[in-house]
Amino acid sequence: MGIVDTSARLSQLRQLMKEHNVEVYTTSPNTLPLVMLAEVSKPDPEYPDLRITADNPSLAAFISGFTGSAGTAVISLSQAALSTDGRYFNQAAKQLDDNWTLLKSGNEGVPTWQEWTKEQALGGKAVGVDPSLITAASARKLAESLEKQGSSLVGIQQNLIDLIWGEARPARPSEKVRVHPVKYAGKSFQDKIADLREKMEAKKQAGFIISTLDEIAWLFNLRGSDIPYNPVFFSYAVITPTTAELYVDGDKLTPEVKAHLGDDVVIKPYESIFADAQALSSQSKGDKSVKFLLSNKASWALSLNLGGEDQVEESRSPITDAKAVKNEAELEGMRACHIRDGAALTEYFAWLENELVNKKTVLDEVDAADKLELIRSKHDLFAGLSFDTISSTGPNGAVIHYKPEKASCSIIDPNAIYLCDSGCQYFDGTTDTTRTFHFGQPTEFEKRAFTLVLKGCIGIDTAVFPKGTSGFAIDVLARQHLWKEGLDFAHGTGHGVGSFLNVHEGPIGIGTRVQYTEVPIAAGNVISDEPGYYEDGKFGIRIENIIMAREVKTPNNFGDKQWLGFEHVTMTPIGLNLIEPSLLSDSEIKWVNDYHSEVWDKTHHYFTSDELTLKWLERETKPISK
């Protein structure tokens, strides 16, 4: 997390900008490492199409030194700015050198990266962007905004930052693709494609060009490992009423994968997608009634090759909607993997407390994270982590997406709050859990803040709401208790979670982003429930369970509506010594006790020969009272 001197890189970039006759250059949108992916495909509303970032890893990180998973860099001939959201304000402040201005997205009076770009382009200046790194909709909106002030947006095919990075830029991985069995997927890929074709036929669409990697993996029941923590592989796909084509490097495909796809799917070279897109467009001979479906998060470059607005229909992908509603096999897999994962976390926290308190062992944050991964790897169907483990002690916990590194991480202080946000990929599901512990004596304020966060977590977990309700509408349930004391947290309350896919998954979520108003929560959605509170320089608190939306019975049925609620699947204790029972209602105390009883019942059998963990689990699941 150290500062990188970016002076030489910016100087080189500005020289290239002059050569290409542009005065402003942007990496937009996010081109940082796919850490939790969405959201870069970590796809979720915070990130554009995974395709955009997957093919262009770490460009903003290289030019700015900021390594968070969400951010946009904009460089003019005299200034440079990086825009990121509240999760990364602390981290960005520590990583950016004096060449950079930090734009704290969402803060009052702070310009967006687009507004900052416009300011730099005043006077008819040209703004350059790699068209493969911006969505068509974003490009149009930015271009229209620039044109109003006499400026322009220029697509530059060769990425200028790539030219500086040169041969040092990491090569695109080429890992083997594997079959995701129907027993975990719950549905054959042939049936998924048939469902997609029905949707296309209803809208009279000539074809769907798919560029989002987790959508392709889900559609074809395949998984890969080209991107750390996310079981996806570099590919494109084209589905028409009569054909299914997968664009992927042939050497990735094992005999098993080829047999799985059989004659139903034509395999084509990965690099030929743009030429084929042009060919599809030319075959329509300019007939504007022939439309190709393209995700509204796909790249501007792909849209241009398909013929632009005249022949492209941009919308939210029907695959992302279908993927977000898990079938019974996927839901059962989520239940099962969270029990195993919860047992691993319980073993870890018991071990960590014993090492720190009883043995007085000196452990740093990376030592602890490595131990957790080792414990998880012993469990059935383990496939790897789902993101970098956030193992953070004291002040580091206030860095919302903190990543400990051996050279700079801290020694874990048993007398400070310890926050661990971690997750795992199993063949039957994906996990993401945050727990906050104090292995000494927490302060009264720490206990109060923790309990207010817990009340918010319970508020979401126990919510009942009518069908059609969005995550935007219920977000207040997680914040209301903090708000009453003038407290809050600067991140979303929940994100969608994939089924042995990306740990952040769209289109649903819980939070204040406008995107969360677009798609209502539906039965079968799997979402995180993770309110928090952070004191910069002191501590961080977050409690995160994974919850699954389901139909619920209610005493009444106003308007003959379907009513929904949640089922939690995360199974590891919540730190009892941080709870202030006097702040909890009777129903909230019952929730805590019922939850811990469930954790005990479902996980204690893992520790029949592990007395240390069994005693810790027994202590941490004892009932509480006022």
List the helices and strands and how they pair.
Layout: H1 7-19, E1 24-26, H2 50-54, H3 59-64, E2 72-76, E3 80-84, H4 89-95, E4 101-104, H5 113-120, E5 126-129, H6 136-147, E6 152-155, H7 160-165, E7 178-179, H8 182-185, H9 189-202, E8 207-210, H10 213-219, E9 222-223, E10 236-239, E11 244-247, H11 255-261, E12 266-268, H12 273-283, E13 292-295, H13 300-305, E14 312-315, H14 318-324, H15 328-358, H16 365-377, E15 382-385, E16 390-393, E17 417-422, E18 424-426, E19 429-430, E20 433-438, H17 444-461, E21 465-466, H18 471-474, H19 476-483, E22 494-496, E23 505-510, E24 526-529, E25 532-535, E26 539-542, E27 545-551, E28 563-568, H20 586-603, H21 611-620
Parallel strand pairs: 1-5, 3-4, 5-6, 8-13, 11-12, 13-14
Antiparallel strand pairs: 1-2, 2-3, 7-9, 8-10, 10-11, 15-18, 16-17, 17-20, 18-19, 21-28, 22-23, 24-27, 25-26, 27-28
Structure description:
By secondary structure, the chain is an alpha+beta fold. Helix content is 34%, strand content 18%. The chain has a 6-stranded mixed β-sheet, with helices on both faces. The protein is globular, with a radius of gyration of 25 Å.
Task: Please provide a brief summary of the model.
The chain is 34% helix and 18% strand. It has 626 residues and is an alpha+beta fold.
Q: What does the largest sheet look like?
A: 6 strands, mixed
pLDDT < 50 runs, ≥5 residues: 29-57
Apparent shape: globular
Helix content: 25-40%
How many helical stretches?
Answer: 21
